[in-house]
UniProtKB/TrEMBL annotation:
Belongs to the beta-class carbonic anhydrase family. The keyword Transmembrane does not apply. InterPro entries: Carbonic_anhydrase, Carbonic_anhydrase_sf. Its cofactor is Zn(2+). Binds 1 zinc ion per subunit. Zn(2+) binds at residues 39, 41, 97, 100. It comes from the Bacteria. PANTHER family: CARBON DISULFIDE HYDROLASE (PTHR43175:SF3), CARBONIC ANHYDRASE (PTHR43175). Transmembrane segments: none annotated. This is carbonic anhydrase.
Length: 192
């Protein structure tokens, strides 16, 4: 029986043996000295870089659900700091998108689906008794523009982020690729 994993590994063997990787050869340092935090939405995989005139090797791209930074010392913020301090990124762009699944996310519905798929109520209860508010942790956002502004502010005001790094905020239309400016990091730097 062919599985998705088998298909991937079979294709990969041909990809490598035919040296199709050569067109993607670059370094670990972003040519445009930029790191982007964006959503993991499937519509953005190719659309986002193409809509920004970016190619392989131009930027570092960090993805998560909603392009949201939920904790100032979580893995997303760590990735942005590594991009700036170890991988030569000189600018940060946070890019949310319209019609984001995080905007419609219902934590109760998500927890119910977890239970239907075999997570035990006892596990949910144990997390709750331990002080973990799953509803808060799994909540989405009401307004993508505000969500982007919040993430931009968290990066800009982070105690470990260099104050000379412009942090921009954009929202992309996943249907057309149109970018809307939410926060111009250059303007903020000028006003400081």
């Amino acid at each position: 029986m062919m599985t998705l994993l088998t298909d991937i590994l079979t294709f990969n063997e041909e990809f490598v043996s035919e040296k199709r990787y050569e067109e993607f050869t670059t370094t670990k340092f972003p040519d445009k000295k930029l790191v982007i935090l964006t959503c993991m939405d499937t519509r953005l995989v190719e659309l986002l870089p193409k809509s920004m005139n970016m190619k392989n090797g131009d930027v570092k791209i960090v993805r998560n659900a909603g392009a949201v930074i939920t904790h100032p010392f979580g893995s997303i913020m760590r990735s942005l700091l590594v991009a700036v301090y170890a991988l030569q990124a000189d600018e940060v762009i946070i890019i949310g998108h319209h019609d984001c699944g995080m905007g419609a996310l219902n934590s109760q519905s998500l927890i119910e689906t977890m239970l239907e798929r075999g997570i035990k109520q006892k596990t949910i209860d144990t997390l709750s008794y331990s002080g973990i508010d799953l509803h808060q942790w799994l909540k989405g956002f009401d307004n993508v523009n505000e969500s982007v502004k919040n993430s931009v502010d968290m990066v800009r005001n982070h105690p470990l982020m260099s104050k000379d790094i412009p942090v921009h905020g954009l929202v992309i239309d996943p249907g057309t690729g149109k970018l809307d400016l939410i926060q111009d990091g250059y303007e903020v730097l000028k006003s400081v």
